C-alpha cells in the first residue's frame, strides 16, 4: 500500500462533500507529474485530502477505489481520474504552516513543490501527520 496527498479547493469540493457523497471521481488534474502519480495509484492506497485556499490544511483520509482510467469527460486520454471514498476526518486539521515549521517535513514535496496537486507521502510522514492531528491510524 502507498500513501498520497490530493489537493482540493474546499469551496469547489471539500472533504465534507466527499463524505456526503460516499465516493466520487477525482478529476480535474492537468499537471503531468501529478497525473503520473495518479497513474501509480492502486486500489487500497490511502490518501490525505488537503484543502487549499484559506484553509491550507490536511483534513481527512480517503482510499483509492480504482486504478487510474481515462477521464470520461475529456477526449485527451492523457487526462486520468480515480475513484475515491472517504475513510475518516482527522481529529484536528494539520496546517501547511505547521508542516513547514517542522524540520521533519523539510524534504516533502508539499514543502518543496507546494503547487503540485497530487503527491506521494512517505510512511513516516503519514504517521507524523496522524500524530500531529491526534488521530490514530
Question: Can you give a write-up of this model?
Answer:
- This protein has one domain: ph1033 like domains (ph1033 like fold, Roll), CATH 3.10.590.10.
- By secondary structure, the protein is α+β, with helices and mostly antiparallel strands.
- Strands 1, 2, 3, 4, 5, 6 and 7 form a 7-stranded mixed β-sheet that branches.
- The protein is globular.
- 26% of the residues lie in helices and 33% in strands.
- The chain contains 5 helices and 7 strands, in the order E-H-E-H-E-E-E-E-H-H-E-H.
Q: Please tell me what the overall shape is.
A: globular
Cα-to-Cα separation, first versus last residue: 14 Å
Number of helices: 5
What structural category characterises the helix and strand content? Answer: alpha+beta
Q: Would you report the number of β strands?
A: 7
Helix content: 25-40%
Task: Estimate the strand proportion.
Answer: 25-35%
CATH class: Alpha Beta
Number of domains: 1
Largest sheet: 7 strands, mixed
| N-to-C order of helices and strands | EHEHEEEEHHEH
SSE layout and pairing:
Elements: E1 3-8, H1 15-21, E2 24-26, H2 32-40, E3 46-51, E4 57-64, E5 69-70, E6 80-95, H3 96-100, H4 109-112, E7 118-121, H5 123-132
